[in-house]
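Checklist before submission:
- one chain only
- standard amino acids only
- sequence pasted in full

Submission:
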Amino acid sequence: MAEPAAPAGTSEGRRPTRVRHGPLTLDTERREAVIYGRAVPLTRLEFDFLRILLEAPGRTFSRDEVITRLHAVDAKVPTDRALDNLVVRLRRKLRDDPRRPRLIQAVWGLGYRLVAPAAEAGLELARQAIDLLPVPAFLLARDRAVVAANPVAERLLQRTPQAMPCYDLLQCRAGTCSLRDRCAGLEAMASRLPVQRRYTITTPAGSMTMQAVYLPLAAGHQTYCLLVLTRARTRRD
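Returned file contents:
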């Protein structure tokens, strides 16, 4: 297990380098972290993981890249499982809910990124809006990850589809959709016009035919796609 990050001394007259991201501040000289004014004790690996993400908030760092860079710090972190455990511990310390992340966001099948502060504020407003809808609704990012789902959608799927790619959620193209392909969600965001599709999805209750409506949605400086499912018809297997 990695030792807790120890404060590093600084030269006289030299101010520590601080990196801020929303409520989070990292002092890269002293290797200290503060969130909402509260000091958070981090291990060396936890601190370095955050520092990697802080290099480019909003950019997705692949799991391989993160593991390779952390491996240079501690040889005990060359596995995906070790990285996942590190993120779980770090989220607990930062009180960052993985279902509604304000800082660390998992990107399904790719890696991790920091939610940009402006994007997070707009995203929170969008989440509050879809929570009021009486039908299953999801927010999709440009990389097609599900970044939010309302309670109706979670009850339908009997799980939280956070960070799941929408093509796995809807099983369109038999789950072989490529990020280079043009999908209905990207089409709606590009054209800023509604797009409709029809899918058959599988839920714990059985197969269900859904009418999917994709709507572009501006939230802060980001554009998301609002996916609404209607006209459900359940067929028991």
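Reviewer check: The two ends are 48 Å apart (CA to CA).
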